[in-house]
Amino acid sequence: MAIQVSVCGPRQCTEEDRQNAFELGRLLAEREAVVICGGYSGVMAAVAAGVKTVGGIVVGILSRADREDANPDLTIAIPTGLGEGRNNVIVNSGDAVLVVGGSWGTLSELALAMRRGRAPVIQLGGWALYNERGNPVPGVARASTPTEALELTGLWK
Amino acid sequence: MAIQVSVCGPRQCTEEDRQNAFELGRLLAEREAVVICGGYSGVMAAVAAGVKTVGGIVVGILSRADREDANPDLTIAIPTGLGEGRNNVIVNSGDAVLVVGGSWGTLSELALAMRRGRAPVIQLGGWALYNERGNPVPGVARASTPTEALELTGLWK
Amino acid sequence: MAIQVSVCGPRQCTEEDRQNAFELGRLLAEREAVVICGGYSGVMAAVAAGVKTVGGIVVGILSRADREDANPDLTIAIPTGLGEGRNNVIVNSGDAVLVVGGSWGTLSELALAMRRGRAPVIQLGGWALYNERGNPVPGVARASTPTEALELTGLWK
Amino acid sequence: MAIQVSVCGPRQCTEEDRQNAFELGRLLAEREAVVICGGYSGVMAAVAAGVKTVGGIVVGILSRADREDANPDLTIAIPTGLGEGRNNVIVNSGDAVLVVGGSWGTLSELALAMRRGRAPVIQLGGWALYNERGNPVPGVARASTPTEALELTGLWK
User: Fold this and answer.
1) What's the CATH number of domain A4-153, 1.10.10.10, 2.30.33.40, 3.40.50.450, 3.30.2350.10?
2) Which chain B residues contact residue D82 at CB under 8 A?
3) Rounded to an integer, what distance in angstroms lies between the CA atom of residue B75 and that of residue A20?
4) For testing the chain D interface, which of B63, B80, B82, B89 should be mutated: the one with the most D CBs within 10 Å?
5) Sign (positive/negative) of CA torsion B88, B90, B94, B99?
6) What are the residue ranges of helices labelled H in chain A?
7) Domain layout of chain D by residue ranges
8) Do B116 and A89 touch (CB under 8 A)?
9) Quick check: D35 and D5 in contact, CB under 8 A?
10) Can you tell me the distance from the alpha carbon of A155 to that of B6, in angstroms, rounded to the nearest whole number?
11) How near does any CA of chain B get to the CA of C132, in Å?
12) ipTM of this complex
């Protein structure tokens, strides 16, 4: 089986998020990783487009029970019918979880990935977390470029 | 149907979290709300114990597919077999979502509740969120006591 | 914790199914069992109405992520947002699974309950199963009345 | 996006089921369909092996939250962590659902596919269903060979 990397991010994203997601998709597909994403618009569409430029495989784990609104660049669509419960399936499917940009849905994926604790979690942009004493919550690696994000996964050492 | 309130929080919690959760359970049951929780130890056990002192109803939405490790103070146990995917079911079940203390699992519940956007979300202690420009992410109300948390739900105006 | 019994059956049911479901609800609530059902119309509504006549507790495990269309006789509604995936949650929640009448959704619950294999499964009416050699598939007990169905669970010996 | 076909069947299957599943995998991959299956042993392993002989894509929708026990012939593994709730995801993912052999888990997939009602459902071997009046329950097409099963889907007319 190939390496699988999950890429999470919001539907409504910044132009910088979009560029980062596209580049991540391209770089992951070049390394022959299967890319797992949420399958709709925004960051999800950008990463799928990036994968497609090099003919890689990108799987959309959809919240709906059918393929309506699924991004046309997906290689495979999995209509879970779980609503936001599908975020846990996205997170479970990655040997690493890359998080681009910030939204409540995206944060739930980051938190579920950290809760699971079995794969590296890397943030590119997005929100920051502080505990009750005002200190940053540890555990999430931060990258400033897509290339650095891939290095931080440790999957291609 | 009665008012239903979801109370989320970590297994490993502080003594203050435990006291807050117990008091929330007691106050909610006095108001005849059905309490929804995750059904195991820590904050979940404390809220269930609080409900029990006044003979109320507390439902545990379990991650496991059986009742193993379920808290004995639960009135009803729902073994979803969804793992952390059950967090979404907890959040969907509340007319308000009260979050006590901080952990990655708890944060996923907070984020899913905000993503859903259909019920007030109130935090008692726990982590804080900042966006990319260093400003607090808006939307989560903060209470400093259980009584204030219940007032902020707006359910008993 | 009380005994929990899951009652499954179709939205579109016969008048006989409806009477059987109502009577099951009444008998289960008299025995202080918590009744778990799918929470909508047909057999689900009839069992909830039966529970209500004696002031018992009936939980609706809903397919939707909100309470729209939930039966008003439910004591508690759990909007799973899982679609038909909620059938597995219904089945997991019962110390026994009672199946009234026949439909594809109902059959999926019967099959999931038999697959799980941890609780007695009793059929009242409904479809019949034959294997490839034309013999009845063993394992599902058949009752001809609600009282017999409860006896066959073995829960009140 | 390619055509996606779900193939369901038991872990413990007959030698005939195994041969049918292998042949279905081979024929589907030759037609460039993506094959969706449960990802473990028995019929699931046989269909994956068939796909692999012609270099096609086969996705395993796993019940576990990790890849333990996943069949090594899978191209992609989706560890849902849903237990038997993953059967609904398998069924939702197919433009047609092919059912090989019989077991309670397999029957739940057949029933969920019929309940969904959006894709043709074809049985190769396995159990038979009769309603309360002793008549066969209509709706499931029956094939006697893998080639006939593919024809009955109507996907390659």
Assistant:
1) 3.40.50.450
2) 81-83, 85
3) 49
4) B82
5) negative
6) 15-30, 43-53, 86-92, 104-116, 146-153
7) 4-153
8) no
9) yes
10) 39
11) 31
12) 0.95
First to last CA, chain C: 18
Residue contact C92–B4, C-beta within 8 A: no
Taking only residues 67 to 96 of chain D, the set having a beta carbon closer than 8 angstroms to any beta carbon of chain C reads 82-85, 87-89
Q: Find where tokens 């990463």 sit.
A: A47
What single DSSP character describes residue B66? S
Alpha helices in A1-103 (DSSP H): 15-30, 43-53, 86-92
Distance CA D106, CA C108 (A): 10
Contact between D78 and A78 using a beta-carbon 8 Å cutoff: yes
**Amino acid identity, position B112:** L
Which of B35-39, C125-129, D16-20 has the lowest average pLDDT?
C125-129
Cβ of residue D66 closer than 8 Å to a chain B Cβ: no
Q: In the prediction, which pLDDT does C133 show?
A: 73
Six token digits for residue B126: 């726990």
pLDDT for residue B46:
98
> Residue A16: what pLDDT?
97
Q: C34: helix, coil or strand?
A: strand
Residue C1 has a pLDDT of 83
State the nearest Cα–Cα gap between C30 and chain D, in angstroms. 30
Bin A154: left if φ > 0, else alpha if -120 < ψ < 50, else beta: left
Residues A80-95: what's their mean pLDDT? 97
Buried b / exposed e along C94-125 (16+ C-beta atoms within 10 A): bbbbbbbbbbbbbbbbbbbbbbbeebbbbbbb
Read off the DSSP letter of residue C137. P
- D79, with CB counted inside 10 A (0-12, 13-18, 19+), is buried
Q: What is the pLDDT of residues B11-62, one digit of tens each?
A: 999 999 999 999 999 999 999 999 999 999 999 999 999 999 999 999 999 9
Tokens encoding C56: 């018992």
Q: For residue C151, what is the enclosing H or E element? A: helix C146-153
Residue of A64, A82, A84, A87 for testing the chain C interface, max C β-carbons within 10 Å: A82
